[in-house]
Design goal:
286 residues, alpha/beta, 5 helices, 17% strand, rod-shaped
Length: 286
């Protein structure tokens, strides 16, 4: 009965190898006991064996539970390993793509480096060219300064010649106008014609090319004139502005006259419209 009770418990063991080992151990124990111990001793042995077997059974149960937990952890670990393997696979794929991109980037960097080298070479050439141009510019500026100096001297010479011609025409006008004015306008010169200066309120001296006084039919007139080698419309306007500036310094009615070598027809009409008298150099007596 004791043996049958133990066997029933052994049948609950799922592992067949472990169950066979325990049954074999039990049979061997019974055989040895039957040969060496009394019934009382056998009963005591069986009781102790049952206690020990209970402890062993509990230990086996704990081991079984530990085995189950271990298998569960192994399954979880295996699942985790699969996940890690999948992640590793994806990482390797990403790494391959990244490697390909790095290779392309390296290729582009190499091309860019080559372009930068060429650009640097061109910059060096351009810098050298700029230095050459700067040197040429320096020489050009030196030549320009020299030309400006020469041009200034030429203008001074021309200005001197122009003034000389201007003064020649003014001199002829000052000497010849009295006869022309008398003949053309019946004007009697009461104050000789001359070059003169009028001082303004601010102390500024204004030059008058031809200045004098005369009478026409007993009427006093202030004669103001100017001579130009060639008269243009802007010269006429400038002369009129000049007269306005002199009005407050030279009171009285003005007799305006312009003397020139030549002037276009439209300028002649403009002079006539403005009430200015025009005399040509060929009309002046020698």
């Amino acid at each position: 009965m004791v043996r049958a009770s133990i066997i029933r418990k052994l049948e609950d063991i799922e592992d067949p190898k472990l169950r066979d080992i325990l049954i074999s151990f039990l049979e061997e124990a019974e055989r040895i006991i039957g040969e060496t111990v009394t019934r009382k001793e056998f009963r005591e042995f069986v009781e102790k064996t049952n206690e020990n077997f209970d402890r062993v059974w509990k230990a086996i149960g704990k081991l079984t539970e530990a085995q189950i937990r271990t298998e569960e952890r192994l399954e979880s670990l295996a699942h985790r390993v699969d996940e890690l393997a999948e992640a590793q696979k994806k990482t390797e794929e990403r790494l391959e793509k990244l490697t390909a991109r790095v290779d392309k980037l390296t290729e582009r960097v190499d091309k860019l480096t080559e372009r930068v080298d060429k650009l640097t070479e061109r910059v060096d050439q351009l810098a050298q060219r700029m230095e050459e141009l700067a040197e040429a510019q320096k020489k050009t500026e030196e030549r320009l300064e020299k030309l400006i100096g020469e041009h200034k001297k030429t203008r001074e010479h021309l200005g001197g010649l122009s003034n000389a011609f201007g003064y020649v025409l003014e001199d002829r006008a000052i000497r010849g106008l009295p006869a022309i004015l008398l003949k053309r306008f019946n004007m009697e010169i009461t104050e000789p014609l001359r070059r003169d200066f009028i001082e303004t309120d601010s102390g500024r001296a204004i030059e008058i090319n031809i200045f004098g006084k005369g009478k026409i039919n007993g009427k006093e007139l202030v004669i103001i004139g100017e001579s130009k080698a060639q008269l243009r419309k802007r010269d006429v306007d400038k002369f009129l502005n000049y007269i306005k500036m002199l009005d407050k310094h030279l009171p009285g009615e003005k007799f305006l006259v312009l003397v020139t070598y030549q002037t276009p027809l439209q300028v002649r009409k403009y002079i006539q419209e403005k009430g200015i008298n025009l005399v040509f150099s060929y009309e002046l007596p020698l």
